[in-house]
Amino acid sequence: MAVVASVHTHACVLVVLAALLCKAPRANGAPMTSSLNEARLEFTVRDMDSCLVALKDAPVKRLLPRPYWLHFPKCGTSFGLTLHNYGCVDRQSSTIRERKFRNDEAECVCGMRHRWDPTIAKIIDLQRYKYCSDEVRLSGGWFKNHIPPPRESYNEYKGQLVGLFRDPRKRLLSGYNHGKHSFGLPFYLKQSLRELPDLRAYVEFPPIASCMTKMILGYLCATVVSISAAELEEAKRRVREDFAFVGLQEYWNESVCLFHRMFGGTLLDNAFQNSRSHVGKVAPGQVISGNRAGNVTYVPDTWWRKIKPEDDPFDWAIYQEARKKFFQNMIQYGLAPTGVTLDDMIANDYS
Predict the structure, then answer these.
(1) Is the pLDDT of residue 11 over 60?
(2) What would the pLDDT profile of 263-319 be if each residue is shown by its tens digit?
(3) In this structure, are strands 161-165 and 243-248 parallel, antiparallel, or unpaired?
(4) Distance of CA 252 to the CA centre of its chain
(5) At a CB cut-off of 8 Å and minimum separation 6, what does 290 contact?
(6) Interatomic CA distance for residues 90 and 94, integer angstroms
(7) Exposure check for the chain: N or C terminus, fewer CB within 10 A?
(8) pLDDT digits over 102-144, tens only?
(9) Which helix (H) or strand (E) holds 339?
């Protein structure tokens, strides 16, 4: 992958980036349908009660000892609650409803750094370590926000990767409404980002596309990098073969239930809560000011329909792989209606 060098003027920057990224080649066979049919599959597990029934007589699960959460921006921060519950044991309920699972207010502190790090131990009440599983060490998005596994040591994380994937059209809309989210964007492009006037300009700003693809390949979400069709195929292969768990934000409750069906752990009600909801906080048309990306005019959630798969072809291809794997696992682990095939699911899901 060739990283684009810094240039002196914003106009030149955008010309160079557009040449590299805006017209990225499609992968062979990458689905590019623009169908916006919003039919949604109905599974038997739709809430905590139905999930508990499905888990009751489930066979023995396999342990996921070192889950690395590849946390794509705008793709399910609340899923951290599910992982928090997986790494913290011997509790029958949880009072955590917001992002407290990530900070000093957490009722237990577990992860790659737990117990053996004396620096952390001096700061955090050791009493909260008593809930940490001796078998599970959380990493990735748990402590590293939106940082992918290091490219040079990627093989160490095979079979332990956990990801919540999202329709890239909806991810882009959410990123725009969240202050033109651009994690990893080079500093020299910040001013260009601030000057973007609307959703369409944000979607077409070259570093914004291919976020999930880039992170799977070991780059930050808004890194300026040209991705080849061959590299996209490698990213798709990693989704199929290297991810221990793939969930979909569009099927949130089903994803939570599938995780516990596959790997065990205590299912708590907070896993079904949205810890980052904006409902009632911001109204469409409201101008959000004071953020580092300049003013943003908040747009309705339904505006994802204005974004096409062709606007983010690589992430669209990645999302199709994630959907397929998710539906396959729903069938394999008995959480799909009897007799339903993968082809049925693909044909009837909204995407």
Answers:
(1) no
(2) 988 887 777 776 555 544 566 666 665 556 667 888 998 999 999 999 999 999 999
(3) parallel
(4) 12
(5) none
(6) 11
(7) N
(8) 444 455 666 544 444 444 444 444 555 566 777 777 777 655 6
(9) none
**Residue 338 per-residue DSSP state:** T
Task: Kindly tell me the burial class for residue 147, based on how many C-beta atoms sit within 10 Å of its own C-beta (0-12, 13-18, 19 or more).
Answer: middle
> Two tokens at 204?
């077409």
Which of 113, 148, 149, 145 has the alpha carbon at shortest distance from 128?
A: 113
Provide the Cα torsion 200, 203, 207, 208; round to 10°.
Answer: 140
User: Based on the number of CB atoms within 10 Å of its own CB, is 60 exposed (0-12), middle (13-18) or buried (19 or more)?
Assistant: exposed
Neighbouring C-beta atoms of residue 345, cutoff 10 Å: 20
Evaluated on CA atoms 298, 299, 304, 310, the torsion sign reads negative
Measured CA to CA, the distance from residue 157 to residue 140 in angstroms comes to 10
Compute the radius of gyration of the chain from its Cα atoms.
20
**Amino acid identity for residue 190 in this structure:** K
- Alpha carbon distance 108, 283 (integer Å): 35
Sequential DSSP letters for 126-195: GGGGGGB-SS---EEHHHHTTPPPPGGGGGGGTTTEEEEE--HHHHHHHHHHTTS--TT--GGGHHHHHT
Residue 202: DSSP 8-state: H
Rounded-to-10 torsion of CA 107, 111, 116, 119: -70
User: Residue 277, exposed/middle/buried by CB under 10 A (0-12, 13-18, 19+)?
Assistant: exposed
The tokens 């095979």 sit on which residue?
Answer: 158
Distance CA 14, CA 10 (A): 6
CA distance 162 to 146: 13
CB-based contacts of 317: which residues, under 8 Å, 6+ apart? 26, 27, 30, 31, 213, 232, 236
